[in-house]
């Protein structure tokens, strides 16, 4: 769920897989495709609710949620394999800085869901600078070390730690003590750990110099948006209805997500607990009632942070020498007020 860069470019394979995948129900109307960033989970609940409740059909759309592959959703969108995709803000910024045709159009989460986690019994870890000299269980993303380095340095440390790339097995390695710390999504892996009885403590990014962000978003390409403005507005309006439904009718929404993915069963207890965490924490719907819209200050602050940390690279893999115009990285113009 949180690790966008562990995928390689397999766009043709993804297209073939999508063509062969069974659809949950027949739909008519303009066909719209959406690529997931991970196997189905509560970050995707607005999509599944909108499809299963018929909101897309009412909008004149036939929406196909493509099966997850190890190709980054941003890569599929930028290459025209998918019309929309689930992205992270960091993934959007890093891919767009390198030249990908991407633009954020819908903020799924209102605020940061990621955090640094470690075993609650580690008395030798009390603050980020204590991570110096420890072993990090990572996921292979180019930005992870830079992110952790900046958090440790912000707390007065040197930012010197060992990294072993483990992917999702990082959580098992953390539980067994094979690594000292890792990153997790509090609203999914964090909930899963709590249900399993694993006691953890965490450092929140924003407490140590990392700006708050819309962790998860829906992106499209400028090419698609220019040619399909009306379809984009209809798709986002129906998706917003789905996400708002999930915020106001959590039990039914959880059942919808579980039932819609019967071929690859989800842990029902985890889905329900995760959705409760998302709703109770104000992740899907802001205190002002906002659903889907971006906060410009958050995009600008995170973009600036990534640039200053040297995380944004150009098409040749070299750090950008000038900050880009982050207003071109997203738009609220396709969402009704």
Automatic annotation (TrEMBL):
PROSITE patterns: TAT (PS51318). One of its GO terms (biological process) is thiamine biosynthetic process. Residues 1-26 form the signal peptide. SUPFAM superfamilies: Periplasmic binding protein-like II. Transmembrane segments: none annotated. Gene3D superfamilies: Periplasmic binding protein-like II (3.40.190.10). NCBIfam families: TAT_signal_seq (TIGR01409). InterPro entries: NMT1/THI5 (IPR027939), SsuA/THI5 (IPR015168), TAT_signal (IPR006311), TAT_signal_bac_arc (IPR019546). Residues 41-253 form the SsuA/THI5-like domain. One of its GO terms (molecular function) is transferase activity. Responsible for the formation of the pyrimidine heterocycle in the thiamine biosynthesis pathway. Catalyzes the formation of hydroxymethylpyrimidine phosphate (HMP-P) from histidine and pyridoxal phosphate (PLP). The protein uses PLP and the active site histidine to form HMP-P, generating an inactive enzyme. The enzyme can only undergo a single turnover, which suggests it is a suicide enzyme. This is Thiamine pyrimidine synthase. It comes from Plantimonas leprariae. It catalyses: N(6)-(pyridoxal phosphate)-L-lysyl-[4-amino-5-hydroxymethyl-2-methylpyrimidine phosphate synthase] + L-histidyl-[4-amino-5-hydroxymethyl-2-methylpyrimidine phosphate synthase] + 2 Fe(3+) + 4 H2O = L-lysyl-[4-amino-5-hydroxymethyl-2-methylpyrimidine phosphate synthase] + (2S)-2-amino-5-hydroxy-4-oxopentanoyl-[4-amino-5-hydroxymethyl-2-methylpyrimidine phosphate synthase] + 4-amino-2-methyl-5-(phosphooxymethyl)pyrimidine + 3-oxopropanoate + 2 Fe(2+) + 2 H(+). It comes from the Bacteria. Pathway: Cofactor biosynthesis; thiamine diphosphate biosynthesis. It holds the Pfam family NMT1. Keywords: Iron, Metal-binding, Pyridoxal phosphate, Signal, Thiamine biosynthesis, Transferase. Homodimer. Belongs to the NMT1/THI5 family.
